[in-house]
Amino acid sequence: MKATGTTRSPGAALAALAGAQFTVMLATSIVNVALPQIRSGVSLSDGATTWVVNAYGLAFGALLLAGGRAADLLGRRRILLAGLGVFAVSSLAAGLATSSAALIAARAVQGLGAAAIAPAALALVMEVFPAGPGRGKALGVWGAVSGAGGAAGVLLGGVLTQAWGWPWIFYTVALGAALVLAAASATVPKVPAQVTGRFDVLGTATVTLALTALVWGLTTARRTGWGDSFVLGSFAVAAALLTVFVLVERRHPHPLLPPRLFRTGRIATGNALMALLGSVWIALFFFLPLYQQQVLGDSPLATGLGQLPLAFANMLGSTLAPRISRRIGTTATITGALLTEAAGLLWLSRLSAHGSYAVDVLGPSVLIGLGLSIAFVQLTALSVEGVPAQDAGLAGGLVNTTRQVGGAIGLAVLATLAGTATTHAAAHQPHLEALTAGYRTAFTVGSAVLAATAALALGLSCRRTPAAPAPDRPAPQPAAHH
């Protein structure tokens, strides 16, 4: 693989960039196994417990577009290193938190750091590895560490929580971020800023507040019901702010989300499918560890070890994804991967309150790991296909945004459905049976969402648009070349 620019060791640069992505994904799932201990440690309510996960995912997803555009304007390496610094400090603060408010605030700042890291790192991968087989292999590595980071988070969360207590999950993430920061400083090339212009502050503010209001309303609906006035008000605010965002983007000379981005390659298709995949992804790593601990009675360590087959399947699928795509084509690869993951979730929907890991979890985990990793690699590639250098950071931010916001919304909706199913079942079934009924509902709906996504992929991913974008109005200022 030949690198562009001044990179003497593209392999070392890729390792550092993949490490940054791994750390971001690790922080997404490492808290899941430790949630019962965190709940008692800082006196979390049921609703606040969900926000330990959602505060990170929401801040991450809502600020990714801003992070991607900042990387294009200010320099990708600079934004990557700054994001890693913020990430390390906020992770340390989360471990030191003694109250629910401090912990949730630290998780939100973690999300801010991650929103700078992920798009800058992906844009740098595209910079170091030009279009072709080399980039395909690099994206395979990217997919492997992304999926493995989620599974490894559950494993490390279990090991650390059982050995030293829940604060150590955050101390470990802080240490990992610091090490990646040092590695990136030494190996990642300096790439000049790609565009000139003003940062779209108003557009960033409106879309961030809109997404916050949307997910807040979805999360609150779990406790108060969908007809609650506060929930409906949150949805109304989200809709109003999204309308303002669209109007702002049309008038701004340098919009946060320029229309030209959607006239390039198959970006809109890739992001739409990635949002649906993300809606199930984060919820999977939320519900599965809870089932293993609360129903099967597994310890945090056993729960974490139970994620190893999924992690290995994920790494295998990411490695094979480019090869499979070259053999059978992008559309068939994406569709097959989504159906494979849907089959695994459908298998999980048959969970028993008196089951076992070997019977109820192992087989589905392998199917899910393979399908998830292959779909993620191919959808990432689809979402950055044909993007000019000036928009690489923004494209990276967009694909991460759709996955993270889709995940936050999916978790809120599936948690609401699971909670409702559990409440209804508790009226006439024992506690463990009622909990299992809720988890079965979440996995059943998740399987249906992925099956529908596969059907959409058949029709949408075969549509191509011209690779060269038409100019926006008003025309953007010339990109800075190097």
Automatic annotation (TrEMBL):
One GO CC term, this protein: plasma membrane
GO BP annotation list: response to antibiotic
Segments traversing the membrane: 12-35, 47-67, 79-105, 111-129, 141-160, 166-187, 199-218, 230-248, 268-288, 300-321, 328-349, 361-384, 405-427, 439-460
Entries under Gene3D superfamilies matching the protein: MFS general substrate transporter like domains (1.20.1250.20), Multidrug resistance protein D (1.20.1720.10)
The keyword ATP-binding is assigned to this record: no
Membrane topology designation: Multi-pass membrane protein
Domain Major facilitator superfamily (MFS) profile: 13-465
Pfam families named in the record: MFS_1
CDD domains recorded: MFS_MMR_MDR_like
Keywords: Antibiotic resistance, Cell membrane, Membrane, Transmembrane, Transmembrane helix, Transport
Subcellular location: Cell membrane
Keyword Manganese: no
InterPro entries, alphabetized: MFS (IPR011701), MFS_dom (IPR020846), MFS_trans_sf (IPR036259), Sugar_transporter_CS (IPR005829)
Molecular function GO labels: transmembrane transporter activity
SUPFAM superfamilies in the record: MFS general substrate transporter
Protein name, as recorded: EmrB/QacA subfamily drug resistance transporter
Lineage of the species this protein comes from: Bacteria, Bacillati, Actinomycetota, Actinomycetes, Kitasatosporales
